[in-house]
Amino acid sequence: MKNLFKSIALIAVFAILITSCSKKNDQPADQEVKTEQKDKVLAYIKNLGFTDAQIVDKGDRYVVDGDMVVDKNMEIPADNGMPKTEQYYNGYLVTNSNNILVKVDASITSMAAEINAAIAQWNAVPNSKIKFVLTTGSTYDILIKVDNTIGASVCGQAYLSTSNGKAGSVVWINQALIQGNSFAQRTRTITHEFGHTISFKHTNQSTTINVPGVGGTDALSLMNGGQCGSGATVLSAKDKLATAALYPL
């Protein structure tokens, strides 16, 4: 979380189409497709205002500004990721928002209390149908797990919601980094990352898709980036308004 986006408790689309202008004649056709798709996604991220320094290549995905994870095979949104002027989210809403199944990996069962507290915050948002539900079954929407290798100053990472209406599939928590934080701050990390899975981006991010009717900055937003261990520990009034605006009852 410590290098998070900058925008309001919300989300924002990534997109810009670009074709590959130089390919080796002996390059396999399938590799050409993979390279072209990778270039499109990279260009799309940069079109939102992010620099090379903020984008890390992790093989089959990019990690942007510390904790936002984007698959290289993502579908490029129809509006090509052009910045809007309202409030921030990634443009992809979760279809089963009233029953998002979360599975707790064995690696993070010691943080069950923090996970429960984070889920309770999202589920209690007034006038919103968002509901995270814990499951132990083999079918789930989100897997939350420990990954202490995601970065020396990165408290957590998560996939954003996808173009097919699914929640971001994985949340990674750097337990080794946050274990010395207070219970409230550990819960904040998990709550923040869950926010990304349902399309919210960083409230203090400047180039993303805005949530209609919920504008302006919000120093109290739990979805502000770069505040792991020191930021707001509860969803702000605007965080809740934005959630209700995107996922109304």
Automatic annotation (TrEMBL):
<feature type="signal peptide">
    <location>
        <begin position="1"/>
        <end position="24"/>
    </location>
</feature>
<dbReference type="InterPro" id="IPR024079">
    <property type="entry name" value="MetalloPept_cat_dom_sf"/>
</dbReference>
<protein>
    <submittedName>
        <fullName>Dual-action HEIGH metallo-peptidase</fullName>
    </submittedName>
</protein>
<dbReference type="GO" id="GO:0008237">
    <property type="term" value="F:metallopeptidase activity"/>
</dbReference>
<keyword id="KW-0732">Signal</keyword>
<dbReference type="InterPro" id="IPR024653">
    <property type="entry name" value="Peptidase_M10/M27/M57"/>
</dbReference>
<dbReference type="Pfam" id="PF12388">
    <property type="entry name" value="Peptidase_M57"/>
</dbReference>
